[in-house]
Q: What sequence folds into this?
């Protein structure tokens, strides 16, 4: 039913994700991951802190917050959010530590074998909250809901392929796979499947809202979904064939072409949305989301040629997708989302009772824009470094990305603490920085026998 | 199938401390299992809550206990929906409300501006007066604020999906309004 519309643990999901982002960029900046060294245990740990710890946790936190907005329905069983967060965070840490076994840390093998079970418990609780909410009411008739549901199917495939590889690396003979076969599918299901499709679904609604553009479910949106569904089915089919030790199907090029077309169609629709906007003066989150879109276009354009050009270009395409497209989009929107939710938390109860500031007053848009510009510079440098195989340039780029994120973290803290507002306008009590507002009454209630 | 035991929430200690129990009541309601009732113990008859809980699909029964406290049971109604086509949370019977005395066209405004305009208008309206607002999308963040302030609402998306129509019946001027 309709209750408070701010999910209680959203800020905690975001904070946990940001910690993983800072840690992974720190590791990359000191040379623990980079071109020519992705197979090392430290590099795998860094990549998973980034992809699972930062991007997946951020996306799950955002979905828990925005699925009710997409569906106009309250979230089912919101109390599972905290256990889901704890399990996902713990699973990420175990997985990252477990990968160190590849560099000779024997104890890590057990962690690597156990981590998938912890991660799936977190994902499972997330699905228990999201799936019934997505299916209620209008449900799958809405384009954005269909897209998020498809993303969750890809998430299951991401976990399945990841588990098979983790168990194989840990020395268990439960789901033995040939890693070079399974790895590209795992990367595609995560980057192109779960993360990109969930970002598509959420962006339909949020972009229309932030740009004041008409939000229509037209033929283009249906085509994006159709192509995306085709890609997910193909990749899941390939993954199933590998896990069942079936034949190696020569569908890689078809997947790459279909994936690139899906991204292209989505970008055409976003371009139309941008052009039909009523809000001519756009805010910093939307201006930098354009940079994310450019990275998506470049990454999609690279998908097919990588078949000829080789591994370095495939890695550059993945870097562009994970760091350029998904992370730039997430960081840019995070500034807006955190300021909006903070405004609702603090000032919604005061509307009509005293003057309230604008949401934009909570943010130093110029500073946030500079940080996002620095981030984009790091993305460009990192992509180039991977394409030409230059570890030192990659390290420098990771340092630039790290500085940009530390700047954005400072800005997010300033937003949560209302530091950009006139101190005279501040309320007496601010909500906690990361944790939910405590419910003082919860010790007073208890279930009684009827 | 067994009916779960009612969840009991005693708000007397909280009120005695001078705290506002509304958030705790909504939180307890959110935690109810399907079919579970909420038994609320309060030092007075919490009449303003009845319409809020009716909006959320609960029937109400209340009694005064020998110790002077009020015991109110909010039981979920099996088929609590309402006029077809209305969004969940809408007040049943909104069709019988008087004609709107205030009309706001809030299309083309960036959230949360529609919410600000609606709540500011409601602050000056008398109990029972009705406000009609036209919006671009469902104002999900407005609803808890309306419930908390004792206003009732009913809304739905226009058939073409391009606008949201919202009727709000004022529960009376905001007692906490500070003018000037």
A:
């Amino acid at each position: 039913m309709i209750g408070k519309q701010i999910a209680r643990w959203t800020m905690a999901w975001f904070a946990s994700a940001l910690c993983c982002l800072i840690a992974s960029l720190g590791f990359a900046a000191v040379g623990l991951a980079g071109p020519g060294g992705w197979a090392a245990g430290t590099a795998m740990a860094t990549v998973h802190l980034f992809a699972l710890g930062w991007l997946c946790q951020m996306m799950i936190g955002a979905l828990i917050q925005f699925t009710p907005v997409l569906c106009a329905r309250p979230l089912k069983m919101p109390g599972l959010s905290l256990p889901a967060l704890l399990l996902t965070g713990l699973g990420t840490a175990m997985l990252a530590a477990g990968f160190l076994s590849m560099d000779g840390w024997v104890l890590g093998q057990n962690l690597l074998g156990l981590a998938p079970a912890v991660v799936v418990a977190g994902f499972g609780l997330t699905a228990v909250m999201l799936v019934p909410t997505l299916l209620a009411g209008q449900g799958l008739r809405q384009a954005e809901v269909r897209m998020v549901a498809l993303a969750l199917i890809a998430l299951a495939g991401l976990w399945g392929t990841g588990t098979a590889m983790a168990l194989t690396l840990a020395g268990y003979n439960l789901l033995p796979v040939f890693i070079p076969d399974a790895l590209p599918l795992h990367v595609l299901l995560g980057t192109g499947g779960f993360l990109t499709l969930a970002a598509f679904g959420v962006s339909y609604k949020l972009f229309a809202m932030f740009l004041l553009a008409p939000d229509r479910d037209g033929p283009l949106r249906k085509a994006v979904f159709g192509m995306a569904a085709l890609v997910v089915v193909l990749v899941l089919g390939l993954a199933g064939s590998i896990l069942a030790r079936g034949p190696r199907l020569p569908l890689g090029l078809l997947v790459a072409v279909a994936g690139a077309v899906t991204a292209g169609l989505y970008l055409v629709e976003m371009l139309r949305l941008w052009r039909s906007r009523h809000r001519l003066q756009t805010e910093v989150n939307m201006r930098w989301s354009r940079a994310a879109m450019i990275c998506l276009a470049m990454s999609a354009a690279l998908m097919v040629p990588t078949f000829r050009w080789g591994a370095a270009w495939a890695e550059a395409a993945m870097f562009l997708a994970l760091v350029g497209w998904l992370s730039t989009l997430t960081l840019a929107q995070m500034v807006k989302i955190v300021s909006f939710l903070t405004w609702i938390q603090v000032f919604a109860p005061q509307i009509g009772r005293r003057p309230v500031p604008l949401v934009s007053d909570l943010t130093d848009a110029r500073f946030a824009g500079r940080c996002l510009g620095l981030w984009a510079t790091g993305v460009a440098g990192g992509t180039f470094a991977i394409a030409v195989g230059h570890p030192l340039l990659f390290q420098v780029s990771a340092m630039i990305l790290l500085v940009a994120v530390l700047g954005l973290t400072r800005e997010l803290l300033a937003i949560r603490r209302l530091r950009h507002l006139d101190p005279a306008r501040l309320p007496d009590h601010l909500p906690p920085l990361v944790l939910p507002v405590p419910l003082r009454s919860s010790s007073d209630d208890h279930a009684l026998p009827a | 199938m067994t009916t779960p035991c009612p969840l009991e929430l005693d708000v007397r200690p909280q009120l005695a401390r001078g705290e506002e129990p509304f958030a705790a009541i909504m939180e307890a309601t959110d935690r109810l299992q399907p079919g579970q009732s909420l038994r609320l113990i309060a030092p007075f008859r919490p009449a303003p809550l009845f319409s809020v809980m009716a909006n959320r699909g609960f029937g109400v029964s209340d009694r005064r206990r020998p110790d002077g406290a009020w015991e109110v049971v909010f039981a979920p109604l099996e088929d609590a929906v309402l006029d077809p086509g209305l969004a969940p949370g809408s007040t049943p019977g909104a069709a019988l409300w008087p004609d709107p005395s205030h009309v706001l066209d809030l299309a083309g405004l960036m959230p949360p501006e529609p919410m600000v305009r609606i709540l500011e208008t409601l602050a000056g309206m008398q109990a029972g007066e009705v406000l009609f607002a036209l919006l671009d999308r469902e104002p999900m963040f407005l609803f808890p604020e309306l419930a908390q302030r004792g206003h009732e609402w009913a809304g739905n998306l226009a058939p073409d999906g391009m606008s949201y129509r919202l009727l709000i019946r004022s529960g009376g001027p905001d007692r906490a309004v500070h003018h000037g």
User: Anything to note?
Assistant: Residues 440-450 of chain A have pLDDT under 50 and may be disordered. The beta strands of chain A are 445-447.
